[in-house]
Amino acid sequence: MTQAHSDATRFGEAINRYLGAVGYPDPYAPAPRPAAHAAPAAPSTGLIVAGADETPAGFVAVDHAAVEAELRGWALRIVNVRRPGAGDAGARLLDRLSERVRTGSPAVAVTTRLVIGPDPARALLAEAGEAGLVVVGHRHGATATTFGRSVADRVARQHAGPVLLVRMPAGSAWPARPLIVGVDGSPPARASLEFALAEARVRGCEVVVLHVVGDGSDLARRLDTRSPVPVHHKIIQGDPLAELIEASGRAAAVVIGRHHHGVLLPGTALSAAAHLLPQRALCPVFMVGPV
Questions:
Q1: Do 123 and 188 share a domain, yes or no?
Q2: Which InterPro entries does the record match to this protein (predicted)?
């Protein structure tokens, strides 16, 4: 696999500056650098919704959401779901997180929403209806909390738009890594590829496309000529899930198409990977495509 370039990306610069401003400890690490890329397009009217709780995964989700909102010029809404009788802990958390975003990304218009109800996933899905991106913290194999494993999985499978599942990154080189996307010629894979190219353009990073054997070898040549970002290609012949998990250890994020609520469909080589990758990837995962 082609190694990611070592130059700073817009995403890396934004997250380093953001995390430096809010006093976040390593592992993101290096000091902020002066901007080395042209500014993104003029602000639009998009919205990012971030699910938040008191866990480290919840805080990381808000951090990622703030940086994504800054890069796009979108607004950010932070949502916390509480069961009845929880007191004012939710309001205090949202105040803390919104102040964190204002400190790290002053240009981001941030609002908060406290939802009282028994089903966090359903509540977050209702709040996410108008969002262009939903960001949720995800944890490996742990008992679910407010926005823990099972809630994140439900949101990723049931929300109609893109969902970013985030975890703590590994190492200071992480922001400069490429996006990884798996393709197999299916409609979900085509949607994930289009999203990955658009996300890479916003971040200023490279894309590595993992082609499952049989998806059409001429696709790589066509993409190289029309893509606005550097694109590298690799043909994979083994288990797509194992290949994607291995590649995720060197990626800023993995993008994969959503396959009908995680149901394994015949004729789509990546359907099993789409079902299992959010639990096993070593980096954030974008779930893309219609439910």
A1: no
A2: Rossmann-like_a/b/a_fold, UspA
pLDDT digits (tens, 9 = 90+) for 172-211: 566 688 999 999 888 888 889 999 999 999 999 999 999 9
Is the distance from CB of 194 to CB of 258 less than 8 angstroms?
no
Tokens of 6: 């070592």
Strand partners, 202: none
Q: Which two tokens stand for residue 188?
A: 């979900």
In a domain, 256, yes or no: yes
Q: Which of 138, 166, 194 is the last residue of a domain?
A: 166
Q: What is the pLDDT of residues 64-109, one digit of tens each?
A: 999 999 999 999 999 999 988 877 899 999 999 999 999 999 999 9
User: Which residue in this structure is represented by tokens 């977050």?
Assistant: 124
**Structural tokens at position 184:** 């197999």
pTM of the model: 0.77
What gap in Å lies between CA 288 and CA 282, rounded to an integer?
Answer: 18
Please report the DSSP string for 106-145 in residue order: TTS-EEEEEEE-S-HHHHHHHHGGG-SEEEEE--SS----
For residue 56, the tally of other CB atoms under 10 A from its CB is: 12
- Could you tell me if residue 171 is inside a domain? no
Q: Which residues of 108-131 are buried (b: 16+ CB within 10 A; e: fewer)?
A: bebebebbeeeebbbbbbebbeeb
- 210/149 same-domain check: no
